[in-house]
Queue: 2 jobs
Job 1
Amino acid sequence: MESRYNPAAIEEKWQQIWADKGLYQISTETDKPKFYALSMFPYPSGNLHMGHVRNYTITDVIARVRRMQGYRVLHPMGWDAFGLPAENAAIQRGIHPAKWTYQNIAQMRSELKRLGLSYDWNCELATCSPDYYKWTQWIFLQFLQAGLAYQKEAAVNWDPIDQTVLANEQVDSEGRSWRSGAKVERKLLRQWFFKITDYAEELLNDLDKLTGWPERVKLMQANWIGKSVGAYLEFPVVGLDEKIGVFTTRPDTVYGVTYVVLAPEHPLTPKVTTADQKAAVDAFIKEVSAESELERTAEDKPKRGIPTGGKAINPFTGEEIPIWIADYVLYEYGTGAVMGVPAHDTRDFQFATEQNLPIQVVIVPADAADVKAAPKQAYTDPGIVVNSDLFNGMESTQAKKEIIKYAEKQGWGKARIQYRLRDWLISRQRYWGAPIPVIHCPNCGIVPVPEKDLPVLLPEDVDFTGGRVPSLAQLQGWADVPCPTCGTSAKRETDTMDTFIDSSWYFLRFPDAKNESQVFDPAKTNDWMPVDQYVGGIEHAILHLLYSRFFTKVLRDRELLNFDEPFQRLLTQGMVQGLTYINPTTGKYIPSALVDPADPKDPETGEKLEVSYKTMSKSKYNGVAPEEVINKYGADTARMFILFKAPPEKDLEWDDADVEGQFRFLNRVWRLVVDFVESGSAKLSAPVTGNLTKAEKDLRRAIHIAIKEITEDLEGEYQLNTAVSELMKLSNALGDTSAKDSPVYAEGIETLIRLLAPFAPHVAEELWQNTGHTESVHTEAWPKADPTALVADEITLVIQVLGKTRGTITVPADSDRNALEKYARESEVAQRFIEGKEIKKVIVVPGKLVNFVVG
């Protein structure tokens, strides 16, 4: 056995042996309980970063421990491979997005393998591969058959130069295209949607089933779904046979409605606009159309609006009220119209004050003295109803119910539950995505592509050298096909699907990843699902996790799945932060390689730099490449540091000194085992029998405390950092013991290696083989604590005089109060301080201390 720990000599060797033996392939032993461990799969951007390393190492430890605990484990990896970065790369490099993507997958796969992660690579999938997106398209057709996929007009960000739709992220703060620099327009296009709102109530209620999820994530989803209980009310338009429908959670304020506001893009806007206001309204609509949704709804932005000249009738008061349009009302939200109640809504009060609109008080505090005074601000709390005809004097909470009943009776409205959640717009006018599998026929309308014709393949003969990636609509001839129903010349759908669709079902494919005839075998997927432990970033708390829950429920209702929720437990790991240098004057980040940590100054200006820890990123020049750490210290050290430095859910501050510390720890473990093997004084299999010396008892207790503590750390909250601390304590106990020639020491060495195996798999495997084992340590059973070993024969008793600790003595653990006092009185420690003095009181804390109060 080599005397020095050399990770480079062992890590690649063991990775190859594990792969050759198929050590981590899916077990078919159905008599074992299952455990499905999954990290959120990455976008193949080219290189791993430390955030990836942290995510995948955490999941790997959990998977390895469960395997040793007797579970059959599914621990797969794949690639979320469609999306914009590949198109951007195609533009910059003039190469096909597929070529760039598969190059990156190959690079990142090799980096993942260097980390020693226990993946079954036979399950690998990439969402951009036709054998995957064939089934993404098949699932789309399931949604279509279920009435959950439909087309309607929706506003998009349109680049008039590139003639393409932009994601919100591609529009800069000035409303310009990130690529062409053109002023982005809001344009109505026919778009595909998934009807997620049909599942809003179930998605909300079933959050209660997710007892293994962080409360923070569940709250974020609940807020995103945004259930509101209220009323739908209608305001007739003067001079038209039309009504403006609004949703409100405050029907108790309806007598205070002094105006209504339409979204500028509302279909009623041109109908209610009068001739004298048409030019001003058209100009306002054009101005607003250039703004993003975020700009229009920003809380800190002044609310802008303009009267249409039209009037509506408040049916409750019979009065005519003006119809306005305003930037803060969006057609996609609710009904696309709101009622203005300035006396009882902060935003409405601000708007009405600025626009000189009437303010009518209809609710006052129960103890209000003057109900006629003009309000200085909106009153938004419950109170007593006034100026509201039949409902005067009623408590506002009761008035809500009564006014809804009255509205229903009069035909003016009804009770309604509404959700903030909107249907999911899945259309993308982009090339690098899964084509939507429908055909538009002039005779038959929307016709699904027959299943036998799936997948609808992306065309490969596409020119990427012109500085832009054409959408499918811009590819001549690709869309021309006969209708599969009637044979008439028809057109393919040229939109591709949102990449969130690919990631909303990938976890269902892993248990049966190579199935060519089905999306998955329901028997296999239902056997492995739901995922027992899902690990990923908090940034996916809403969209990805919500969409995955939605897909699961739809496919359950299509009788493919027999469970309601995809992920039983969720761990959202914290960020990895690096030491970051910022010039406070310019705000520029300075690469750490150019800075002296002892005296951080800007290398160009000499200014003192601000130093802090921030999330690692290329733009901050504060990243540490995993490859550099692995090359210098080995994968096991990188894993140990990332696990030890902080609890999994907290942010982690990168520190080279702590990395070095973990490398030294693995060196100590290596040395312990080398000395043990070279001594030849015991065999690992030697049973622990007979009467044990005190040193042996102490060591055995340390061994079984480590087993107990580490096992507990790997349940519940996954305190992996304290588990590593316990490994260090056991290593120290083995190093310090005088019982190195005892079978107990052999038990300790073997236990240390087995406990270390999930954390540092390569070094553990090497040490296991060097201690005479032929089978892999990773197929060994996880150690179990012996309760009898945990019981101490003796304890350390603290001796205090007047509350001050004077020393300690060792006494039998089963001593009662009287015995403890006797041992303490007779001890040399106590005698030095109490001899010849009056003992006024003796305080005994069993198992801990004896305190003498002397005169």
Note: The mean pLDDT is 93.
Job 2
Amino acid sequence: MSAARLSRWFASRDWKPFAFQRETWRAYLDGASGLVHAPTGIGKTLAVWGGPLLAGMRRRRGRKPRKTAEPLRVLWITPLRALASDTVAALHEPVESLELPWSIEKRTGDTPQARKVRQRQRFPTALVTTPESLSILLSYPETRERFATLECVIVDEWHELIGTKRGVQTELCLARLRHWNPALRTWGLSATLGNLEEARDVLLGHPGRDDARLISSDYDKRIEIETLLPDEIERFPWSGHLGTRLVPQVLAAIERARSSLLFTNTRSQAELWFRSILLARPDWLGRIALHHGSLDRKLRTRVEDLLKEGGLQAVVCTSSLDLGVDFAPVEQVFQLGSPKGIARLVQRAGRSGHQPGQVSRVVCVPTHAFELVEFAAARAAVEARAIEARHPLELTLDVLAQHAVTVALGGGFAGDDLLAEVRTTHAFRRMTDQQWAWTLDFVTRGGPSLTAYPEYQRVTREDGRYVVASRLVGRQHRLNIGTITDASALTVKLTSGRKLGTIEESFIARLAPGDIFGFAGRTLELVSVRGQQVLARRTKLQKGRVPRWNGGRFPLSTQLADAVRGHMPLVSPDSPAEELRAAAPLLELQARWSLIPAGDEILIEMTRTRAGHHVSLFPFEGRLVHEGLAALLAYRIARRAPCTIDLTVNDYGIELLSGHALLLDEGDWRVLLSEGDLLEDLLACVNETQMARRQFRAIARIAGLIFNGYPGAPRQGRQLQASSDMFFDVFRDYDPDNLLLDQARREVLEQQLEVRRLRRALRRIAGQALRLVTTERLTPLSFPLNAERLRAQYVTSERWSDRVRRMVQQLERAAERTVDSHA
């Protein structure tokens, strides 16, 4: 009877349940847990929500109607608090139609404090929350009793959490809930993920459950990928230059659809594109909007509401609109610049045609000529379903230290019991007794170097249990819970009092009153900076600096890098892919001046200019791998003979610039590019740079060494940086075995230098031919590296652009002479 009622509700909306939805419902009713994987827009939410609904209808069968809502049954974890309201609405619709006595509410950082207090007294039947808000709930002793009726936890967009510290935080929270209720069911949702079985096992904990399910939809979501081609291909591309030249074609493509999303990879790009479009079409003011994570929440909500209502022609956005929300009017999306990953392109494409049976359409817009090859490679990878894996993190002790204080605050724990509990997570399944003892020592006395400072004795031991006795420690800890450690931001307000959003302190520090900058789609004049507030007024000037935010540049993923390497030799005027035909003039010149590396070759170019001796290598492994490889090569070269080398990388290659020639033959390069002593050499590189120190700043904040400040009075970025640097120096000098220092170095290796991919790349290179070519001038492949190096020498992008344009003109004249000589 319950299943029939749910099927009738589907039929009332002209829907029919998919097989994967019915399979998920049956699994839930059997008491199983698992992961549901299906394309965006075909009903994953109803797949996991249907089980609790059916269980609720069965529970009510034959009973009298309730006057009050049922107690807490379902906890729904979303990675973005911006999705919480839409999730509540989506969950509420069938509950209301089926007349279930359920209440559904959200609890995020935006929830009013009065409602949070009320919820802690009596939770709704279904609570939509974030990992951070769930952690805060676990810090209250009464939560265990209030969660006694909880039957299921659903983790939405699990592919966005796995592989991050927020994912580890979620693992620890789930372990705590399972400790309270071993029968708790756990379900996850994912749309774009390559390692599904591993993702399921991480979600469900260690050891794995016998009833663990992996349910995938067999629905083949159609994705149409189109690339806008420039009228003329520049043979010496440089990052970002081509993009704005395609604004007229982008405008024409926008006009053919009812509503469009224009995705960029960074907030700076979003600001630039929004301004460029409005300059070209000022009559679109009010029909086009801007959306990214640094804008004020009210501005973003207004944009989202207008988009749902069909009131906007287009929205220029970042990953802030990647996930979850159903914008039915959106008929197409644009990818402005390479997506850098297959999963990201598929995820963004799914924002259009967000209904079963509809086609998802994505229009790719190259920002430099080589991205034509990337788009062709991405299309082939999408067709082959070569989606990237997201590997989980392990032994993030900063997150564990924070969680230990949370549990101590939430009623306390026995050391052995909590160790057994955290070992049920994937992240800490291999944790040693010594590592756990260090963690307890860290939260109870700050470790051996901080024992003299009472403020770091956050947890005390009373009657065999670890607890938090200080109310001040408890208050500060709850304010500090979370693993998101963005750069210090200042609030931007207009002189009228309207709040626009936040901007990084490092950018504002370079401006003076009267300087012009662009933000939130407006051109602003800086009036003053007072404390954490930036006061600005609008100006009619059209030009100004665009803020740059840290951490927004994506590297090529493994899958896309492999695909690009495979497509480079395919570029020709006769290629079946239009992008590869369009890029042919660029690669033809590369072949004349140097060569195009085949899939089993590594090209090494040697060029002398007035700047010095350039050596350019092209592994095509992505920016982060190249950063690690460049540091490794410089270290190994300098160890052979002391020298100064400037390093520049992009997604395709590495430039080593020296004042004298690097006299290296193929045998030398084989040694330099060998896998031998990789970790030892990389650790030496890390120790000799600021990379570990920078990485430690985030670790120190997560672990609770640094207090971010109270609401309305956050500590300034300079203060936080100085504090973390002080701890780094203290630990390095007086506590060298500190495991947080070890973690900082590991994170540099694993995340910044991608040592796993780097090792794979070196193994691949060992089996490839090295092609050493001496060139008379910079080639189409090496020129972008040189342009990137010059960027750091200029204060303004205008001066840099002028310099690069002059260099392009000189190289183009040389290219014309080459063409004439071959005519």
Note: Residues 797-822 form the longest helix (26 residues).
